[in-house]
C-alpha cells in the first residue's frame, strides 16, 4: 500500500504514466478507502491506460471487463459449466448407483441423492467470468471495468453489490467474499448518464485533455526519438485541432501515433506537405480532415469560424476553456 | 471555526449550489481527509473533489466554493510604519516637525494608526489643500444645500479616516464593521456566488477606497515637500498599497462566505424539473424552457438505452437453428432454450410539423427530442408546413438544434389564418412520398386546425397505407378536438395512435412509445 500520494505518482511515473495531483490523490484514496475509481472524460485521454498503469505500479494482475450493450451476468460474473456437469454425471453414474443401491424407497433414494447435490453445484463447476475472477483471485488484482456507459442500466445495478461490498451472491452457493479487496477502475465516455447509486459508491475522477506542457511531457516520455522542436510544434498543432469544431478530436494516443509517424518520416519540422500526408493519423473523419486543412491554411493561423455555427457537442466543462 | 465545521459548511454550500451529495459521500469526504491530512492544500482539494463531486457539470461550483472555506488565509494587514528602519522613522519625524504644528500633529497621529474624528479629518483635508476650502458661498438660498453637502462630506471624511486608520495601523475592519458595510451595499440579499466580485467592489467603494489614492497622493506630496526622504515615502506607500490589497482579499472572502451562508439558509426557490414537466409547454418562461431543454437531452439518453433493450429482449423473428443448437449443448442437445434470429429493427422517422404560431413551443421541443435521438434513429426526415410543406431535414442535420429551429421559423414566418394541412399533405404526396416506406413511422405534430380548408383525407390515407405506423401528436386537449376549425376528427380514424402532448411529460411518454411494435 502506498504511503502518500507522491509515492503513487512516482510509481505511476515508473510505469511511464504521468499522473496529475488529482489522479495521484484519487488512486491513493481509492486504495485507502477501498473504493472504486470512476474515471470519466472524452475518449482517448488515458482512462484505460490509467487502469493498466495502476496494475503495473502495484504489481497486481489486471483483470479487464469490456462492457457492451447486452452484457449480462453470465458473461460478466459466472456461469455454470453445464457440459462439465453433464459429463461428470455420466462418468460417475456407477458411483451414483452404488450410493443409491442401499435405498429401499424412492423417497430415500431422493434424500440420498440430495445429500450429494452439493458436488454438482460447487465452485468446481462454476465458470468464473471477470468479476468473479477478480473477487476470488488468490492474489490481489486490479479490476478494470471499461466503458461502463455502454452497458445497460441493469448491469450497472448489478455491479453495485460487487463494488460496495466486494462480494457476489450465487444463489446455489451463497455469498462469495473477496479474498483480497481488488482495486477497481471504471471508465466511462459519458455517452449516457450513470446512475446516482453507482456514482455514490465511487471516487470520481474527471480526466480532460492535458495542457500543452503536460502533453508535451507525455510525448517526450513515450516517443523520446522525436526532436524537441518538432514535438512542441506537433503538440501545439494538436491543441489547435482540439479547439476546432470537429466530429472527433484527436486524443492523446493519436498524438502519440502521430509523433511516431513523424519519427518514421524523420521530419525535423512540420511543413504543409508533412501535415497533408499525416493528418489522417490524427483525424478519422473525412469531413474533419477537410475542415482542419482549411482552418490550418488560414493565414492568421487562428481557427476561423466557418461553415456557419458550431455543431453542438456533448458538453464537457473543460471545453470552453 | 474548526476544520470539521468548515468541511460541513463546504458540503452545505455545495448542496445549496445544486450539487447532490449524499450522507455516504460526505462521510467519504471526512474519511478521505483523515487519510490525506489537511496540510497539503492541493491534495485536500483533490481528495474532496473526488469524493464529493460526481458530475463534471458540478466541478466549477466546487472550484468556486473550495477556496472560500479552505483557501489560503488572506494576508493580514501590517502596521504601515512597521517596515521602516529607525533612521527612516527619525527622518520622517524631522520632516513632520517642519510642518505647521496642527498639521504635523494630525499626520503623526494618523501615521501611528490612530483614528481621527470626522472634523479632524476635514481639517487635515483642508490643510492639505488650502485653496479648495469653500469660501464665498454666501447666498442665502444655498444654505440648506450647503449643510447637506457638509453632512455628506462629513460622512465621507469619516469613512476615509476609518479606511486610512485600517491601512496604516495594520488592523483591518472588525467583523461588525464589515457587516455594517455589507448591509449598506445589500449584501444580505445576495444568494448567488456570481455576485461576489461586484459586491466586493461595492463594499470597497463604500469604504472610500476610490478616494484613497487622491488623499494619499496629497499626503505624500506634503510629506515630500516637508523633506521626507523618497525612500521612506516609497516604503510607506508600498506598505499602504499591500495593506489595501490585503483588505480587498479580506472583503472578497467575507462577501463570498456571506453569500454562501445565505444561500444555504435560504436556497433559491426553483420549481423542480418534475413540476416543470407537467406545465403546459405554451406557458413556460424562457428560463423554464431552458431548464427543460437539458431534460430533453436526459430523456433522450434514457430512451436510447431502453429502445436498445427492447430490441434485445424482443422474442420475435425467425427461429435461429444454429444459435439454438449452440445454446442447447449444455442441456445435452435438448432444445430448452430457443434462440431467435434477432430482428434488426431500424426504424425510420418522418416528421410533419405544423409550425404556425400556436404550435411553436411544442415543435421546438419535439425537434430537440428528435435531434437527440438521431443516433438511435439513423433515418429521420423532417418537414414543416403552414400553408405549404417544406423539407427541413437539411437545416436540422447541419446546425445545432437552437439554430436550426430558429432558422426554420425565420424562413417560414407565421401568417394570418393561413394554415392549410390539406394542401400540404397533397403536396407531400406529390413530391416526397418516397420518404415513406414500410419501416417509416410517420408523426404529424399539429393541432389539426385547418382554417376550414379541405382536409384531403385521401392524401393522408395514401401516407398511412405506405407507412409502418402513423401517429399524431396534438398539443390541444382532447376536449377541444373538432371544435371550431379543428379537423382533428377527419384525420383521427386513420391514425394508429393520437397523443396529447401539451406538457413535456406527455411528449416524453408519447416519444417513448414510438418504438413499440
Please tell me about this protein's structure:
The complex is a heterodimer of chains A (321) and B (517). Chain A has 321 residues and is an alpha/beta fold. In chain A, 50% of the residues lie in helices and 12% in strands. Chain A has 15 helices and nine strands. In chain A, the strands form three sheets. A five-stranded parallel beta sheet of chain A has the order 2-5-8-1-9, with helices on both faces. In chain A, strands 3-4 form a two-stranded antiparallel sheet. Chain A has a two-stranded antiparallel ribbon with strand order 6-7. In chain A, helix 1 (5-14) packs across helix 2 (21-33), helix 11 packs across helix 13 (252-264) and helix 13 packs across helix 14 (272-282). The longest helix of chain A has 16 residues, at 228-243. The relative contact order of chain A is 0.13. Residues 300-321 of chain A have low confidence and may be disordered. With 517 residues, chain B is of the alpha/beta class. Chain B has 22 helices and six strands. Chain B has helices at residues 3-16, 23-36, 41-52, 59-70, 86-97, 101-111, 118-128, 143-169, 175-184, 196-207, 209-225, 230-265, 273-277, 286-313, 321-327, 360-372, 393-398, 401-411, 421-431, 457-466, 488-491, 504-512, and strands at residues 348-354, 379-385, 389-391, 440-445, 469-474, 497-500. Chain B has a six-stranded mixed beta sheet. Residues 130-138 of chain B have low confidence and may be disordered. Classes of the chains: A alpha/beta (321), B alpha/beta (517).
**Helix-strand string of chain A:** HHEHEHEHHHEHEHEEEHEHHHHH
Oligomer type: heterodimer
- Largest interface, C-beta within 8 A: A-B, 40 and 40 residues
| Spatial arrangement of strands, main beta sheet of chain A | 2-5-8-1-9
> What value does the Rg of chain A take, in angstroms?
26 Å
> How many E strands of chain A?
9
| Low-pLDDT regions of chain B | 130-138
* Biggest beta-sheet profile of chain B: 6 strands, mixed
Specify Rg of chain B, calculated over alpha carbons. 37 Å
Largest sheet of chain A, described in full? 5 strands, parallel
Q: Give the overall shape of chain B.
A: elongated
Along the chain, the helix and strand elements of chain B come as HHHHHHHHHHHHHHHEHEEHHHEHEHEH
Count the DSSP helices of chain B.
Answer: 22
Count all strands of chain B and give the number: 6
> What structural class do you assign from the helix and strand content of chain B?
alpha/beta
